[in-house]
Amino acid sequence: MKRSTLLHLRIPFSFFLLPIFLFAWAIQPEVSWSNFALVFIILHLLLYPASNVYNSYFDKDEESIGGLKRPPKVSREMYYYALLFDILAILFGGFFINFTFAIMLFVYGLASKAYSHPNIRLKKYAWWSWLIAGFFQGYFTFLMTYLGLHEVGLKQLFAAEIQIPALLSSIMLWGSYPMTQIYQHQEDAKRGDQTLSLQLGILGTFHFVAIAFSIATLAYFLYFQQYFEATTAFIYIAYLSPVLFFFGYWYWQTRKDRTAANFSNTMRLNLISAICLNLFFIYLAFMQPS
User: What is the pLDDT of residues 53-75, one digit of tens each?
Assistant: First the structure.
């Protein structure tokens, strides 16, 4: 494997997607550790890297992308490794978990490829790409993870106690997704990709995310208040407070200087958000009575 391919797999970037996995585990943490490890490996070391390297291959970005400040040039090898990692994820999912889990991995792979493939390229359509990416990375991934961790049937996934947090996962992603595009306006415009952040503009992206994220936070607060102890809802807000402080500080900086809406600050927000949410969901899993 070439070094450029390894970098474009962006395996460390999977840390930013870990909160969905931990949330699906935390609402019912009684799982076998072998399943926990297998689902984690399949998603974060195979499925997500396959999507990353596949989309990198077709995007051919010259400027910063998620997880890579200076992406190396793409090569044909990346395309084949994307398919290999996808196939391994599906085979491992089918062999070690169950057939339904494998099918869901396959569907997720197709959706992620549609984001950048030139024949479809959802990235060209601001609202469609926002809606579909948030749905598959949130709701769909939550259900896929829950099914894999607990080895339940599809019918059991339609229970309210599973559907509600799955929907919340998408609501949170819909609220924050445009922020991940804010530093790519020049690259996206040059390629003809009308991302939601590009259409909203720099300050418009901050305003949209502030409103959407506030709605998402309220929805999570009410969920934790209803399904867990009342104090859990307030503890969730406490864990999120570093995200809110940094977002406000970054907005203040950007109002003074638009160049503050850059790769480094975007990655800082992603990292703070991921750390805070991951820690909260770990807390949520272990605070529940056995």
Answer: 898 888 777 676 766 777 778 88
The residues with which 178 forms a beta bridge, in sequence order, are none
Give the list of residues 6+ apart from residue 197 with CB closer than 8 angstroms, or none.
178, 179, 180, 181, 182, 184, 185, 205
| Per-residue pLDDT reduced to its tens digit, 134-169 | 999 999 999 999 999 998 888 889 999 999 999 999
Contact predicate 101/144, CB 8 Å: yes
Burial class of residue 30, CB neighbours in 10 A (0-12, 13-18, 19+): exposed
Place of tokens 């474009």: 8
